Automatic annotation (TrEMBL):
Catalytic class of the enzyme: isomerase
Domain Helicase ATP-binding residues, every copy: 210-376
CDD domains: DEXHc_priA
HAMAP family associated with the record: PriA
Name of protein: Replication restart protein PriA
Gene: priA
GO molecular function: 3'-5' DNA helicase activity; ATP binding; ATP hydrolysis activity; DNA binding; zinc ion binding
Protein family membership: Belongs to the helicase family. PriA subfamily.
Keywords for this protein: ATP-binding, DNA replication, DNA-binding, Helicase, Hydrolase, Isomerase, Metal-binding, Nucleotide-binding, Primosome, Zinc
InterPro entries for the chain: DEAD/DEAH_box_helicase_dom (IPR011545), Helicase_ATP-bd (IPR014001), Helicase_C-like (IPR001650), P-loop_NTPase (IPR027417), PriA (IPR005259), PriA_3primeBD (IPR041222), PriA_3primeBD_sf (IPR042115), PriA_C (IPR041236)
SUPFAM superfamilies given in the database record: P-loop containing nucleoside triphosphate hydrolases
Catalysed reaction, written as an equation: ATP + H2O = ADP + phosphate + H(+); Couples ATP hydrolysis with the unwinding of duplex DNA by translocating in the 3'-5' direction
Amino acid sequence: MMTEFFAPDALVAVLTTQPLDRTLDYRAPEAGCRMGDVVEVPLGPRKVTGVVWCEGEGSFDPARIRRIIRVLEVPPFRRELRDFLERAADYTLTPRPAMLRLAMRVPDLAAPPGWRKVYVRGTGTPERLTDARRRVIEVLDDHGPLSFTLSELAGLADVGTSVVKGLVKFGAVDEIEAPRDQPYPRLDPDLPGKALTGDQAEAAESLRQAAALGRYGTTLLRGVTGSGKTEVYLETVAACLKAGRQALVLLPEIALTSEFLTRVEARFGARPAEWHHGVTQTERRRCWRMVGEGRAELVVGARSALFLPFRDLGLIVVDEEHDTSYKQEDGVLYSARDMAVLRASLAGAQVVLASATPSLESWANAEAGKYRSLTLTSRYGDRALPEMAAIDMRAEDLPGQAWVSPTLAREVETRLNAGEQSLLFLNRRGYAPVTICRACGEMIACEHCDARMVEHRFLKRLMCHQCGETRPIPEACPSCEMEGKLAPVGPGVERMAEEAAALWPDARIEVLSSDLYASARALKERIEAIAAGDADVIIGTQLVAKGHNFPLLTLVGVIDADLGLQGSDLRAAERTFQLMRQVAGRAGRADKPGAALLQTFQPEHPVIKSILSGDEEGFWAAEAAERRRAGMPPFGRMAGIILSSPDVQAVFDLGNRLAQADAPLRRIGATLYGPAPAPIARIRGRHRVRLLIKADKTAPLQPAITEWLSQVQIRGDLRLSVDIDPQSF
Ligand code: ADP
Ligand code: ZN
């Protein structure tokens, strides 16, 4: 057995976050160290952090091996986490240091725990509340028992620190000394949960038994929106906490609303730890440490929470498991759903994948018996599923440059008269996707990307959705210089808002699109207000499709149900099916039945027909049969290689060299396609070329790719990234 403790001066290998593709040897410090300790080591003239990874190799001159500076007072990386990082690195073909960085993304890691000043709500009140003072008090009131450092509080309230100090004098804010990292309040799994229905109780019991086994297993929990999947998996969390183990609930980032946290609080008497973009630096640090010390029992987080140093992880829930945002698309390319299964298998934990419309991957794994499958068949309280119907746009009398059909408009009016909400769904941000010159036909494109500039009228700018660059909307055509000839083509949500305002001048119309809000928090607050009734007609992109309940919403109108079916992506059918079913599920959650109407020019399209009929099994079976025949995922494996460079010649040369050197791929029976221009052939001035590899499910793909790529040198401005299991192909 490998020793876990290293005596002073013993040789150890440390993995650092520096971009070196191997561990470095050091000598253990005077007090010795343990496997997995987080340490500070000298590297050249610098000090860097790393983790004691394994025994040293003694590869270089023993006299030159330096000593670990110190062991940091933070929880060690347990074997389970180290194994996870290694396996995840091997699977995604990511260098280990880059993987380690995902697990060390926490501020002030090296700072010792100690005491610091924090600010909480006091009881005193100043006589005069300026706007700035009121904002500080609002932040504190909003966050209940949470405390903040001076700079955090001032930042959140958008005031200078002197405003906070001023409030301390009045006693409206108290300054207290607190331990740097306070433990989280205990959750009480013995509080009574809701009385479950027969279906729900059966599923909950089955999951409870699985959790009690204390070993790995994955369950696909299916059920339409509103069937009680959340209630069921909260009971599984309860079982896990009772067993003394930690639980992690992953949600798509946008679904991380206070609504969910409030539900957790209602069930367990306290709020869980949170881990996502919206939490403060201090909170991140606190969460990371407390998770490692086992003093955060439940973490609710976005995909990166998978890399937290859990002490004893017993359960991972991946809610809305089909959601595409679980795939990290820059830096380290990984699927949080797949990594959750990997981590759980190493931790001896259960996984619950919850969805109304599972990914084809999970569906196939359940079919094959690799995952257990549980299904909730009806909505809670016998609320009817929304009525779904197509509006055949070929038969609608609609002027050009208008998108709301008379049929849909009548339905919206009925809702307006009844005081109910309607959602017009269009998955296109901005005013119009294309701006064309009516004189010369030029379509305004981004200078750096192979993409059109999208007009954002509220911001009064054109924006590239690839690189984010914006510029003022020009008066004259950039190509022929004619003035007044530029015209928007096609609809975006902002343009829909204009049309809606003309149709229903008295209605409160609201656009929900991520680019219109300064912060995720501002957006979430607005969503909450709208859910509470603060709008009549909501015009939204896909961010309204998930997360929040809109109890007053009884009508969903899909402006362009055909949108996702265009293009050549083989996942188009799956995505459209999921998105449409999910958007429709927003309607009629409370005591009023809902309806969903899909505007389409092809009501006979098989995907549209299965969306309308709700024949999920039929849809999945047909989709699966087609993918199986083509050897496509999940029945075969794919990997995408993207090469990029500012020099178009260089990037194609490299692609061709790789194509000629494909012997290692052929040896495992894999097929290489390309090089071909990537779906977006230029981003930020870099030309992009794609190669696709297709292999049998059992073929050893990663080692073959490694061998294949090792034959070429990636020099200069060239970049190469490997995407195992790409989202689009
Ligand atoms: P899903 O996660 O499948 O969308 P939820 O768990 O959110 O469904 O349930 C939908 C709504 O119905 C929630 O407001 C939830 O509190 C309520 N609900 C579900 N099951 C029960 C139950 N057994 N008792 C009381 N309320 C329930
Ligand atoms: Zn661009």
